Automatic annotation (TrEMBL):
Native organism: Meganyctiphanes norvegica
Name used for this protein in its record: CUB domain-containing protein
Statement: the UniProt record of this protein carries the keyword Disulfide bond: yes
Pfam families membership: CUB (PF00431)
Assigned keywords, A-Z: Disulfide bond
CDD domains cross-referenced by the UniProt entry: CUB
Taxonomic superkingdom: Eukaryota
Length: 140
């Protein structure tokens, strides 16, 4: 969900599957209108509907120093001018891993030993259904 001020997600928000490795789905922007359900392997059904205009969403994926974070883009359909940006954060420095909008992502998974920041900006026209990210915490 898109919440003003952003959301911080860590391994306490996810379920353990299998033990010691934590995994969970991070839905994209808040949906609007009629839902179209997508099945997920081993997960409950997730709604995928058109999102609201003028969104500015941020998700901070916190990370325990003893873990690796694996982020996979499961589904992705945004308006051509709406953008998702993924940053790797290291203290006060950050490195952009991806910035993209549209319906196909050039790179669908990332693994990091540093926290990640995911941001999404939408305009007012040509909105898509959004995106669904799978976040896995892997204990080292």
């Amino acid at each position: 969900a898109c919440i003003e001020g952003g959301v911080t997600i860590d391994e306490n928000h996810l379920i353990a599957v299998p033990p010691r490795n934590l995994q969970g789905l991070l839905p994209g922007p808040t949906s609007q209108g009629r839902s179209e359900l997508l099945p997920g392997e081993g997960w409950t059904w997730s709604p995928l509907t058109r999102y609201a205009p003028w969104l500015n969403c941020t998700w901070r994926l916190a990370l325990d120093p003893r873990a690796l974070l694996h982020l996979e883009i499961i589904s992705f359909e945004t308006g051509p001018k709406d953008t998702i940006t993924i940053w790797q954060v290291n203290g006060h420095k950050s490195r952009q891993l991806l910035q993209y909008g549209g319906s196909e992502v050039p790179r669908s998974s990332f693994q990091s030993s540093k926290p990640l920041l995911v941001s999404f900006l939408s305009g007012n026209v040509d909105r898509g259904a959004g995106f669904l990210l799978n976040v896995t915490y892997i204990m080292r």
